[in-house]
Amino acid sequence: MTVTPITKELIEKFLTPRETHSRKGDNGKVLIVGGSYIYHGAPVLSSLAALRSGSDLVYTCVPKINASSTRSISPDLIVIPMADSKLTRGTVNKLLGQVPVDIDSTAIGMGLAIQDVEAIKLLVKSLLDRNVRVSLDASSLVKEILPIIEGQNVVVTPHSGEFKRLFGESVGNDSTSRLATCEKFAKKHSLTVLLKGQEDIITNGEISYTNSTNCPCMTVGGTGDVLSGLVAGFLSRNKNMIEAVSAATFVNGMAGELLQKEVGNHMLASDLISKLPTILNSFDN
To answer: Which of 55, 102, 185, 282 could link 233 by a cystine bridge, Cβ 3.0 to 4.6 Å?
Structure first.
């Protein structure tokens, strides 16, 4: 199978331009579901990244205990409080009644506390039934979700530990075995897989890309949440899963490389968001 290293020239083809006469909502409506008592910042980082990616509207669903603090961070977020502090089936049913039916994409799991695995299955299945393109990260990456997402418009975004939890097999240490394992499970379950690491791997089992835009400062907490927001943002406008995911991965890495030059190893995940306009504007010129 041919593996293609991602380049800026390639990503330029994957980015969807904003139409001159478009109206609010035409450039993507995104749902972010995440957060918990401890990890209140994760869904905020994802939501702001989705907005900076070019999406028009972002709905941020967080536990009720986090709603006020989330609103105070940015007036740009449309905050939907969860009824419970953890994801339950009751919470999901109420959430589905509050979210617009024409959401384009969603990212689920960043910092999310899940009380009942049936709740995450219900949420994902319900959104897929609405033809929403789904990105799963962090706590949503559990093996029980696989029967729900096989053959659907879904990308999973694990690091190596989450990959083993989801698929039951380690990816290995060398690049060849990591790629082969990712391709195997992507093809087996008809999914798009983004394996995060020093070299990111993006594959749907038929097409594979590698992304080497990475640097030591990206190990700081929250950079994966920014990536999840970018994935959801690009998916809201580009229905081709592997193109959107590859674009998000490359842009996130480019922002990290820019910050590495400016602040060395002292960046924050929120710094990535501040650099996204610079990176994305470079594709427009």
So the answer is: 55
